[in-house]
Amino acid sequence: MVLLFAPLVLSQGTQIPAQRSQVNSWFTSIIKPAKQRGRTLDPDVAKAEANPKIIKVKKGGGGNFDTITKAIASVPIGNNKRVIISIAPGVYKEKIDRNKPFITLMGNPKNMPNVTFDGTAKKYGTVDSATIIAFSSYFVAAYLNIVNSSPHPNGKMQGAQAVALRVPGDRSAIYNFNLYGFQDTLCDDRGNHFYKNCNIRGTVDFIFGRGKSIYLDSDIYVVPDPRLTVIAAQARESSSEDTGYSFVHGRVYGPAKGTFLGRAWSSSPRVVFSYSNMGKVVNPAGWSHNNQTKPSQCTGEGSSTSKWVPFAKKLTDKEAKQFITLDFIGATKWLLPPPTI
């Protein structure tokens, strides 16, 4: 089923503003640093953020470590304090599996480092092919280019799927990221996640998994593929499962043609685009079979619903609001602003 949003009357507080120009000021007024949040944060988060530790990574020396992997290995198992791993500019050819809570990976916003690896489904399995895998909760990352450098699948190669980032940890936040891949770029796996000011590139099912996530002010760039281009393959398996992807105030663009916003990977996927600018890259049908959903108040050549599949329903204001609020992922209890040093 495709769900269409009715016009919304937004409430105060955690409701995302309808005007994109208001988003940043609204966000900073709600998501303040830990020291200004007091008892509104979960106790574990407040305790972890009280005295963060900084570890510096720099290729060729000059930091605490010369690889990200070594820096993460230095953090004790069962870590309960925020550790900010500050990554100097450069290219880091590493495959990073991170399973320690409260770790932040932070690049230089003026010269973002590249973290790259060429893992494929053939060698590792699809979800384990990721350049970075963030298993544990309270993962934060900002100002990084994450690349899976495997070649563009040609339809003949077996196991060519290649993930750049996999996020199976709960309560994770990603800021100012560029994710580069083709098929299966981002495995938005499980748990509550927040993405802001990210650019995600791919071809087929390049945002997939069973996460419950908000993508705010994030752009989706579709790379041409001779077979098929599909953005989202959200894996909710029943209408009672509380997961889904909510894209708010982003852009869908790129040189591809006939791109589906989503398709059914499992039986009850839930994908919502709100206040998004959709270019002509979008297929006039919008969604492939049995996909959900598309909100109103999107703009651009690709936002027209005149040729959409017929199994559509308009949401009431009450139904629509749950997807355009930080409460969708319970963010006020755990979400913090982008890190600073």
From TrEMBL:
This is Pectinesterase. Keywords: Aspartyl esterase, Hydrolase. Its EC number is 3.1.1.11. It comes from the Eukaryota. Residues 56-330 form the Pectinesterase catalytic domain. PANTHER family: ACYL-COA THIOESTER HYDROLASE YBHC-RELATED, PECTINESTERASE 63-RELATED. Pathway: Glycan metabolism; pectin degradation; 2-dehydro-3-deoxy-D-gluconate from pectin: step 1/5. The keyword rRNA-binding does not apply. PROSITE patterns: PECTINESTERASE_2. Gene3D superfamilies: Single-stranded right-handed beta-helix, Pectin lyase-like. It is an enzyme of class 3 (hydrolase). InterPro entries: Pectin_lyas_fold (IPR012334), Pectin_lyase_fold/virulence (IPR011050), Pectinesterase_Asp_AS (IPR033131), Pectinesterase_cat (IPR000070). Belongs to the pectinesterase family. It catalyses: [(1->4)-alpha-D-galacturonosyl methyl ester](n) + n H2O = [(1->4)-alpha-D-galacturonosyl](n) + n methanol + n H(+). The active site is at residue 205. Residues 286-305 are annotated as: Disordered. Pfam families: Pectinesterase. Residues 288-305 have a biased composition (Polar residues).
